[in-house]
Amino acid sequence: MKGTLRYRRFTIAISILIAGIFLLTQCMQPESTKTEIAKSPEFLRYAGSEACISCHKNIYDTHIHTAHYLTSRRATEKYIKGSFDFGKNIFAFSKDTIVKMEKRGNFYYQVEYIYGVEKLARRFDIVVGSGVKGQTFLNWGDNQLYQLPITYFTSAAEWSNSPGYPGRAVFSRPITSRCLECHSTYVQKISAPGAEPEEFDSRQMIYGVDCEKCHGPAAEHVEFEKQNPKDTTGKYIINPALLTRQQNLDFCRLCHGGRLNKTTASFAFQVGDTLSNYFSAQTAVNDADNIDVHGNQYGLLAASKCFRMSQMTCNTCHNPHENETGKIELFSQRCISCHRSGHEPLCKLTRKIGSSISQNCIDCHMPVKPSRAIEVFLQGDDAPTPATMRSHYIKIYPDETKKMLALLHKVK
């Protein structure tokens, strides 16, 4: 009996000791291991674009309609462009293998069927792309992101295979932080350096190329303005208009400068930084005719005479706060602001076609070209269909000029 009592006391003592050690180790746990459940210091620097509304509502109201803002969103009915209607929701890789786009409850899925039997279903979690050219879709697998095999191709208003996919349904293509760096404002990476596939915290993600992508993290700015509502100096925020020309070009070049090899972690580069401090082996501008129209608008623009003979930047022609897609006459007026009478060089066709010159400089000097990098297979096609994009290599294109003159003559 006494032995049993001693044993029980010993067991209780050991249990208390173990519990004490556990509590002590929890108290002494290093900060680095707590970041999995706490918001990271980097993420806490961001305020989110909704915080800008109280002071910048007009800009916010127009910016949310831009392709930049819409380049990534949560996958909801509002943002997914493709049809889920019967007969319009199928892409067949072969007579045996098809993928259906299906709504199940409140969510949307890509579902693989082989010989009519469901094999795999993956949810649409993130929409990538505004839909101007198309959209691709991402799925969360634990803390990893994967591209779904079916894309929406806007010009054909059809589902297609995602660019670069083989002729079969593949649900395991991982998304990297470099992809997210250009299609979001910030995502917190939680995997160790060099670990692949990379892991991310879905709770610490700011969708779209938002206000803070171009103006820098704004939490400190927002807090200051709340405390000092009459201050108009714009503290703790970046005004790109005050940056140098190269600084302005660099933060556009981050995503519109072709393939860049990063030498630091994704999202380390911030507006106002020097791009070469974060990336190496940047695409050389030495053969503009062979630079693809997708993804390296900077390379094409930098090869243009307009660019080399002026101080123009991307914002000379683009207002990032507004959706100006397809507004040919508006962009033409921006060309004419430099190429006007008394400010050479003046377009040689001005005397020939008169005021019509002010309505469309763009189709002659920046024509739409097929991309070699972005091609999809539409249903039933044996050859890929390229996405088309406007070239930023500004020059004289004789064949395009002939087309324009023929069109104007036909209209008259």
Radius of gyration: 27 Å
**First-to-last CA distance:** 114 Å
By secondary-structure content and strand pairing, the structural class works out as alpha+beta
Strand tally: 17
Please report which band the strand proportion falls in: under 5%, 5-15%, 15-25%, 25-35%, 35-45% or over 45%: 15-25%
Mean pLDDT: 87
The largest pleated sheet is described as: 7 strands, antiparallel
Written as H for each helix and E for each strand, in order along the chain, the element string is HHEEEEEEEEEEEHEEHHHEEHHHHHHEEH
Spans where pLDDT lies below 50 across 5 or more residues: 1-36
Q: Helix tally?
A: 13
Helix content: 25-40%
Tertiary shape: globular
Which assembly state applies to the chains in this document? single chain
Describe the structure.
The structure is a single chain. The chain has 412 residues and is an alpha+beta fold. It is built from 13 helices and 17 strands. The chain has helices spanning 2-27, 53-63, 177-183, 211-215, 219-227, 245-256, 297-302, 305-308, 314-317, 328-336, 350-353, 362-365, 398-411, and strands at 72-74, 90-92, 97-104, 107-114, 117-123, 126-128, 134-141, 144-147, 150-153, 158-161, 173-174, 184-189, 200-207, 261-262, 279-280, 368-376, 385-390. A hairpin with a 2-residue loop joins strand 3 (97-104) and strand 4. The longest helix is centred in the first third of the chain and has 26 residues, at 2-27.
